Every structure is written in structure tokens, then in C-alpha cells.
């Protein structure tokens, strides 16, 4: 068990497994949060008018 994705099912050769971890992009998260806050404030102001 736990053998299927780490080894070939025919020849039992091991597959080199690597984690695909993207680099930390804190500025993308910050930009996204800024845009969300901007949109919420804009909608709030429009509703108040």
C-alpha cells in the first residue's frame, strides 16, 4: 500500500518525487487584499449615495 504513485507498476522502479512549492509571493497576497478592500469600499460608498 502507498506504492502506486512512488513506483512503476510494471518494473517497480522508483519515481523521483518532488514537491512543487511556488516561491513565497507575499506581495501578490497583499495586492489581492488591497483590491478586495478597494472594491468593498467602492460598493459601500455607492450604496450610501
From TrEMBL:
Protein name per UniProt: Uncharacterized protein
Domain of life: Eukaryota
Organism: Nymphaea colorata (pocket water lily)
Amino acid at each position: 500500500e502507498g506504492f502506486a504513485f512512488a513506483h512503476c507498476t510494471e518494473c517497480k522502479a522508483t519515481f523521483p518525487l518532488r514537491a512543487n512549492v511556488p516561491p513565497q509571493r507575499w506581495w501578490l497576497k497583499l495586492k489581492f487584499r488591497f483590491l478586495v478592500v478597494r472594491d468593498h469600499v467602492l460598493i459601500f460608498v455607492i450604496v450610501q449615495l
